[in-house]
Amino acid sequence: MNAHEVDFQIFGEEMQYVELELDPREAVIAEAGNFMMMENGVKMNTIFGDGSSKDEGFLGKILGAGKRLLTGESLFMTIFSNEGEGKKKVSFASPYPGKIIPIDLTQFNGKFICQKDAFLCAAKGVSIGIEFSRKLGRGFFGGEGFIMQKIEGDGMAFVHSGGTMARKELKPGEKLNVDTGCIIGFTREVNYDIEFIGGIKNSLFGGEGLFYATLTGPGVVYIQSLPFSRLASRIWQAAPQEGGKDKGEGSILGGLGNAMRGDRGF
Q1: Strand pairing partners for 91?
Q2: CATH number of 7-229: 3.90.230.10, 1.10.1040.10, 3.60.160.10, 3.40.50.12780?
Q3: Hey, which bits of the chain come out as E strands?
Q4: Residues 128, 144: Cα–Cα separation, whole Å
Q5: What is residue 221's predicted lDDT score, i.e. its pLDDT?
Q6: For residue 241, what are the contacts with CB-CB under 8 A and spacing of at least 6?
Q7: Would you kindly state where each structural domain of the chain is located, as residue ranges?
Q8: For the whole model, what pTM was predicted?
Q9: What's the rounded mean pLDDT across residues 7-28?
Q10: pLDDT tens per residue, range 166-206
């Protein structure tokens, strides 16, 4: 194996964290801001890119880190290495309510494609790259643009979802229609495209957007019930407007406006 072999345990129900056990000189990489705690003997360093290639040179590291800018992530990642004696533990927390999903890349032919903000952490040696969409429709209307993240290698990786997670195993030719924001990720064999919902009333008053994603098997798909963008939108709608109370709150016209926008008030 090229990636470090780490043991793990996931704790919690709705606000989970994952605890990774490192043997001496083993390491994990993580996105900035996901760190929770670590035992004495674990050393933290900031690096360009994901550190998966040992002989890529300075220019290669710069190019690898630059690709992360396309996904909206930082140029840097954080590596946590066990430089002490004996086994040491380091933990990472999900950034919002939901579930942490362990991904054993050896079971998915070495590649998993996910939303650009889903990656949490992985064993050192796992590569975190970008996956370009080759279809214009998917790029313009897919919710995640032309770019998603790809996780490659032969080790363990961890992604997080919002709300409750659903795992679907699609047979060859089997199709699943999903809200574009509800996709966590899928295996490399799954075909991903965008379809127009259709219908004047659906488009104007449905409140579900104009497009949904179609995922066609074979392969495994992970779906989340509460995308962060949806959670943030509801919080923004419920927040007091500038100057005090929302002008439409409690009024007939305000309720009608919310209904036309698809707001359910909860």
Answers
A1: 19, 37
A2: 3.60.160.10
A3: 7-11, 17-22, 27-30, 35-38, 42-48, 76-82, 88-93, 100-104, 111-114, 119-123, 127-132, 147-152, 156-160, 165-170, 175-178, 183-187, 191-196, 211-216, 219-224
A4: 17
A5: 95
A6: 247
A7: 7-229
A8: 0.76
A9: 93
A10: 999 999 999 999 888 888 999 999 998 877 665 555 445 44
Residues 17, 100 contacting (CB under 8 angstroms)? yes
The average pLDDT across 205-224 equals 78
Measured CA to CA, the distance from residue 104 to residue 110 in angstroms comes to 8
Q: DSSP label at 64?
A: H
| 261: phi then psi, degrees, rounded to nearest 5 | -85, -10
Tell me the three state secondary structure of residue 187.
Answer: strand
Let me know: does 30 contact 124? Beta carbons within 8 Å: no
DSSP 8-class letter at 196: E
The token duo for 8 is 């793990």
Q: CB-based burial of residue 263 (10 Å sphere; 0-12 exposed, 13-18 middle, 19+ buried)?
A: middle
pLDDT in tens, 89-133: 999 998 888 999 999 999 999 999 998 788 999 999 898 888 766
Q: How does pLDDT run across 67-96, given as a tens digit for each residue?
A: 555 555 556 789 999 998 899 999 999 888
Which residue has 């989970």 as its token pair? 16
